[in-house]
Amino acid sequence: MSDVSNRSDGRKLPRRQRSIYQIHYGLEPRRGSVMASPLPLRRFTRQVAGHSGDVAGGKYTGLLQCSDGTILKPILKESQKREAEFYERITSSNRPDLVQLRKFMPKYYGVRKFTYNGFEQDYIMLEDLTDGMLEPCVMDLKIGRITYDPYASVDKIKREESKYTRCKQQYGFCIPGYQVYRVGGPRDGELVRAGKEQGKILCGEQVVTVIRSFLNASAGAACRVLLLQLLAALWELQRCISRAGVLLRSSSLLLVYDASALRACCGDSVARCRPPRLARRRAVPSVFPSGGSSFSSQLSQLSPVYPRLGASPPVSPRTPSPPVLSSWSEALARLATSHSFDNNYQEKLSRMKLEYRARLDRLANWSGERHPCGSLRVVDFAHAFIQDEGNMRVDDNFKDGLDSLADILEALLKDTDDLLS
Fold first, then answer.
1. How many other CB atoms are found less than 10 A from the CB of residue 118?
2. In this predicted structure, what is the pLDDT of residue 52?
3. Is the dihedral of CA 358, 225, 404, 379 positive or negative?
4. What is residue 134's DSSP assignment?
5. Which pLDDT does position 340 carry in this prediction?
6. In 339-372, which positions are buried (b, 16+ CB within 10 angstroms) versus exposed (e)?
7. Cis amide leading into 38 (omega within 30)
8. How far apart are CA 413 and CA 409, in angstroms?
9. What number of other Cβ atoms are within 10 A of residue 328's Cβ?
């Protein structure tokens, strides 16, 4: 099938082709991809939290991945049916607060039946947030100190209150799982995964350490460009939650970025995004055994005083002079290019220009549909409720968790402020 239109001069315009699969399921074609029917399915290997694995009889209960850039979430119980209804209402609503919230949710393509491993069941079709990433880094943060809905049973409340207790009470969120590709160092390109077993014991500064590790900032400061992208989206989500009439319980926030894009931005080491801190006053050791540590002992009226390195070999007039080795050589080379003994201003200006271009690109193009180096989405709405317009109130439980996460990322961003000094 196709849509055909005619020009005023009688010639036909090129036809806009649409596949049978798109017409049947109402999906728009993705750029650079071809929709296939039937879709090949495979297990989603990038899942970092939630239910996964086989149950008795060979039935698979985890996420599946399609070849068209979507993932399938199985509907196994009544709460997941309510999640599908939540997606339907948000997608079809014209309420300004819900339209704004839709920007921070994965694209929803409806509920469809698929057969995998001999079992047919209903699946929620969602956008694959890691589609197109070479080295996807994903962190799942369950937001809120309260992770059960108002209609939960007593047993459900007890189970939820016993999980991730210390982390939830301290920060208003917990970390059920994450995966990250290392950037730089001897472990460059290595995939590191952690699940709920590690998340259950996290508390205090360990939480900040894990977030720094996820951002590839263990050996120094985080990439400032990546932090700005995550924080810009997080600040906007904070404003959205303050106005949206929704109650989110047991929902998660996914932090996603591509380590290969981070490597292209920062090189082999993320610490390059932040030059090392230098003390304002420091003693310069003398190169002479008895010269003390004063700076004047290395200066003459015309130039630095180079140390003698032993008896000089006889040099014929035709032989070029050997290079002079001293503690001044590196400093003079740096001074020749950046006019400073301590700071490399050219590298700072280069980083500032890179950050400025990235911020302009984000402001001009980021609309919730692109996936820049860093992005975030809210997922898991099995225990989410839409409030009536006449009885709307702020979900302080969810907002407090976002505020706590923003404080951590803002502190990491502050560590990179000397880039602008």
1. 8
2. 72
3. positive
4. S
5. 62
6. eeeeeeeeebeebeeebeebeeebeeebeeeebb
7. yes
8. 6
9. 19
d(CA 405, CA 249): 17
- C-beta of residue 237 within 8 angstroms of C-beta of residue 285: no
Per 3-state DSSP, what percentage of the chain is helix, strand, and coil (rounded to 5)?
Answer: 35, 20, 45
Tokens 């439980």 map to which residue? 397
Report residue 312 as tokens.
Answer: 């000089």
pLDDT at position 138 over 90: yes
pLDDT at 40: 79
| Total residue length of the chain | 421
* Single-letter amino acid code for the residue at 269: S
Query: For residues 58 and 404, what is the distance between their CA atoms, to the nearest angstrom?
Result: 41
Q: Is residue 250 within 8 Å of 380, Cβ to Cβ?
A: yes
Element (H, E) at 159: helix 154-161
Q: Token pair for residue 256?
A: 């996603």
Q: How far apart are CA 183 and CA 392, in angstroms?
A: 44
CA distance 95 to 102: 11
Q: Are 413 and 231 in contact (CB under 8 A)?
A: yes
Q: How far is CA 172 from CA 12, 114, 147, 384, 402, in A?
A: 60, 37, 10, 17, 8
User: In this model, does residue 88 exceed pLDDT 60?
Assistant: yes
**Residues of the chain above pLDDT 70, percent:** 65
Position 46 scores a pLDDT of 85
Residue with structure tokens 């590191």?
192
C-alpha distances in Å from residue 333, one per residue of 216, 277, 305, 339, 348: 31, 20, 16, 10, 17
The residue assigned the tokens 């921070």 is: 104
53-70: pLDDT as tens digits: 767 667 788 898 888 888
The alpha-carbon radius of gyration of the chain (Å, integer) is 29
CA distances from 75 to 47, 51, 149 (A): 16, 12, 19
Cβ count within 10 A of residue 149: 19
DSSP state of 183: -
DSSP 377: E
Enter the DSSP assignment of 362: H
In terms of Cα–Cα distance, which of 168, 241, 236 is closest to 398?
241
DSSP 271-329: GGGSPPP--SS-----SSTTSTT-SGGGB-SSSBPPPP-SPPPP--TTSPPPPPP-THH
- Angstrom distance (rounded) from CA 386 to CA 248: 9
Confidence of residue 331 (pLDDT cuts 50, 70, 90): low
Which range, of 198-202, 303-307, 408-412, averages the lowest pLDDT?
303-307
Give the Cα separation of 115 and 124 in Å (integer).
13
